[in-house]
């Protein structure tokens, strides 16, 4: 309980030069008027160490309200600070400052949900700005707060420019964000053609979006800057797609050879999603993979060529012996992948193809630990295909179910890929290869019950049968 008092800014300040300068001088005045005992200067706002810790953001257009309890147990001397800051604001903003005091039956103009939204925006730095129409944060339940805080902040990361850093523990499978691209474009062969095509697309964007685009890293400086930025940042719209999309926020996510997040293009929703593929701890940088992996030398050379950086991720900085072990796993992954993809062997010796799937599963888990991500979804799909090709609906449905669960983690239920595998899980016989051979013919309902884990895995992978 207690009485609230403070002031609202009505209408809110604009981003224009006059409002910006006035706000800046107001902030400087406040900073100069109080000592560190009274307030703390955070990267994006000032917080007073009194009452309910009222805040003033550095970006004035975000500001709606400065207030605190001024009586009761949460007041702690806030009264005089509220008065003084209100007076200082009136000097600069005149009648836009609406002072209010519940004891006098004068109430704030904005409702608290709006005000709480504005508080939440303080944490987000101004550049790059995330227009709400383009970036949609999916808000987590992690923060024990009634403010729905975004799961990450954009901040400088040592040696990498900007990056996304988790503000809370983000659980495996959680959608961190989804974002619509500025534009999509094919990777055109002619530099000048691509340049003029992108120039046209840029003209259709707002000034803010244009600035955001131009602030992205360019690994190919020269006479085609728009193409250079696009080539450095575009993410393919789907695996192996020749169309790429450039994004305001997602393009700030840095690379790791052992990423903790997965990016994927949702062709229905026409947006890119980022999901945590393992638990991401608060304070940890959110990373995706820019490449297809491979051993140390080749993958680092590839990253340097395409993106212009030396990778110093948690894998690349391991001691030599551990790197060599990782390299040998990665070579094995590639070999197994190629072997599994051999359609002739699937027809003639499917048990070998299936055994390779199981080996691949083990190596992937050893190499990527808890963050295998979409590779595991692809592996289960391969195992599904091998089984359904030979009419084994029971095992096919189990593999499809595992593939489905992996897809949900990496892409969410709304992804077309997830929906596709879900359909196959329910009706494996609808797959185009279903029953090409009758060698392993089994009905879907013949999944054994009552086996322990080891027994079930043995049945599933056709070991010892
Ligand atoms: Zn690396």
TrEMBL record:
Domain SET: 147-291
Gene3D superfamilies reported for this sequence: SET domain, Tetratricopeptide repeat domain
CDD domains attached to this UniProt entry: SET_SMYD
UniProt-listed InterPro entries: SET_dom, SET_dom_sf, SET_domain_protein, TPR-like_helical_dom_sf
Top-level lineage group: Eukaryota
The protein's name: SET domain-containing protein 5
Organism of provenance: Lachnellula cervina
Gene label: set5_3
